[in-house]
Amino acid sequence: MKAEEKKTKLIVENRRARHDFHIFRRLETGMVLTGTEVKSVRQGHFSIGEAYVTVKGGELFLVGAHISPYEQGNRFNPDPVRDRKLLAHKHEIVQLEAAVQQKGMTLVPLKAYFSGGRVKLEIGLARGKKLHDKREVIRERAVERDIERRIKDQGRK
After folding, report:
1. Cα–Cα distance between 43 and 1 in angstroms, integer?
2. 4-129: which CATH number, 2.60.40.10, 2.40.280.10, 3.30.365.10, 3.20.20.140?
3. Is 141 left (phi over 0), alpha (psi -120 to 50) or beta?
4. Which of 25, 70, 80, 115 is the most buried (most CB within 10 A)?
5. CA distances (Å), 11 to each of 67, 115, 137, in order?
C-alpha cells in the first residue's frame, strides 16, 4: 500500500454525541454511496448531527444523515436524506444488534472521514446521558480549568 492510501481526512464530526451520550464502543464502517454523493461529500456538504444508525434485516443503515445534492449532477441525484447502507462484518453487526436490544443502548454516528479515498463512518454504541450527568461533566471541566489557571499563576510569581 502507498503512504497516500493510509491518510485520513476528516469530513464531519458529531461533537454533540459526546455531550449527549456515554460512548462504550466504537466501530469503523464503510458507506455505500453513489458517485454524485461522494462528490458532494468531498465539498463538505454532509451532516450527521440528527442522524442515527439502525439494524434492519441483519444490515446496518444510517438514517437521517443529509448529503446535499451535487450541484453539477444531473436529474438523477439521489434523495438527500435517504437511508444509506453501512458496511461491517456480520459478527460485529450481530454483537451491536444484541447490545441495542438487550441493554437499551443506541448506535450513533460519531464522525465521517476519507480513508484511502473511501468514505468511512465511525459509529458508537452509546447510552444517553441524564441531565445530572451532563452537569457533572461541565462541573469537572470548570474545576480542571480553575486548577490549571492557578498552577499557571503560581508559576509566574
Report:
1. 26
2. 2.40.280.10
3. alpha
4. 70
5. 12, 10, 27
Identify the pLDDT of residue 137.
80
**Mean pLDDT, the chain cut into blocks of 10 residues (157 residues total):** 64 83 89 85 86 89 87 74 89 90 86 88 86 80 88 78
DSSP string, 57-120: TTEEEEES-EEPPPTT--TTPPPTT--EEEE--HHHHHHHHHHHHHH--EEEEEEEEEETTEEE
Q: For the chain, first and last CA: distance in Å?
A: 54
Amino acid at 112: A
